[in-house]
Amino acid sequence: MKKIALVFLAVFAALFVVITVTKNKPSDGQPKQDASSVAAIEKGKIIKFWEHYRSATDFRLDGKWDLAAENYHAALELNDRHEDALYYLGNMYLELSRFREAEACWQKLVQVNPKNSRAFLQLGSLYLSSDELFDINKAESAFLEALKRNKEETGPLLSLGEVKLIRGQLEDAASDFEAVTGSNFKSTEAYFLGGYIAWKKGDLAKAGDLFSQAVKYSKPNDNNPTMVKGEGDTKTGKGFGAVTSKSIFRESMSGLPGIQPERTDQALDKTYRSLDALLAALKRKVH
Questions:
Q1: β-strand partners of 30
Q2: 133: number of CA atoms within 13 Å, CB side?
Q3: Rounded to an integer, what distance in angstroms lies between the CA atom of residue 270 and that of residue 276?
């Protein structure tokens, strides 16, 4: 009886050793990592991500595009699906004339979130404003996708009007610009381009009225819709910069804020002749 008891005790001890060894045995040759260390690593990544993201935002607002791009890129290495980081990195690459990298950022953003209208809007603007990637068909397609996803914003409709204007579809473009000013009565660009169409058709009274409205709403103030707070606005006053402006016609409108009301008539003809030459060059690129 005593021997039987000793045998059972020996078997029990052996089983205990086997179970203990099995529990602590590394799986697939890798040391087992406890949950607390995994959590600590993930927490560290999150903290580091936000450090880079905030630095990037500060550099962007100061107009330091290269440093902003560097930090947005570093943030995305820690979280490559962060929508704002992808969007703003694309903007920074555009400012740096790194067009294909900008395109890649927004294409990735579309993959991450197919409902992101501003990614499509920026892609469309890229295909219009970049000589390297100019493609009016791609631009139109992107703007249509942006409009489909966000019909409350006037940006996509304005951009589609630009496409029609470049193609010489004046009536359809004018209709789009009128729809934009109907929703956004301070849209400098819609008044400006609508005025050009009236000028082109010989309706100088309407052209003068729309041009005056464009001049009025181009004046810098806190309510100017061309100053996009939280997107491209900067402490240096550069806004989106010459490249990331949502319009290929930004340069044509750059002189509007300096026009005095009493000199509107003289400025109108000169400005629209210059725009007419730009549109002729763009039409040659299209055809």
A1: 27
A2: 20
A3: 10
Instruction: Please calculate the CA angle 263-266-270 and round it to the nearest 5 degrees.
Output: 130
The beta strand positions in 100-199, using DSSP E, are none
Q: Answer whether residue 127 is part of any domain.
A: no
Q: Chain centroid to CA 92: how far?
A: 10
Q: Is 19 a domain residue?
A: no
Residue 165's domain comprises 153-226+240-287
Contact 188, 253 (CB under 8 A): yes
Tell me the three state secondary structure of residue 94.
helix
Domain-embedded: residue 14: no
pLDDT of residue 247: 75
Q: How many domains does the chain fold into? A: 1
Q: Is the pTM of this model over 0.85?
A: no
Q: What angle do CA 30, 33, 34 make, to 5 degrees?
A: 155
**251 contact partners, CB below 8 Å, separation of at least 6:** 242
- Give the tens place of pLDDT for each residue, 104-152: 999 999 999 999 999 999 999 999 988 899 999 999 999 999 999 998 8
Give the CB-side neighbour count of residue 18, counting CA atoms within 13 A.
6
Q: Does 202 reside within a domain?
A: yes
Q: Check pLDDT > 70 for residue 203.
A: yes
Q: Which amino acid, 133?
A: L
For residue 52, the surrounding DSSP H or E stretch is: helix 35-61
Residue 204: give its domain's CATH number. 1.25.40
Query: What are the structure tokens assigned to 98, written together?
Result: 């790194």
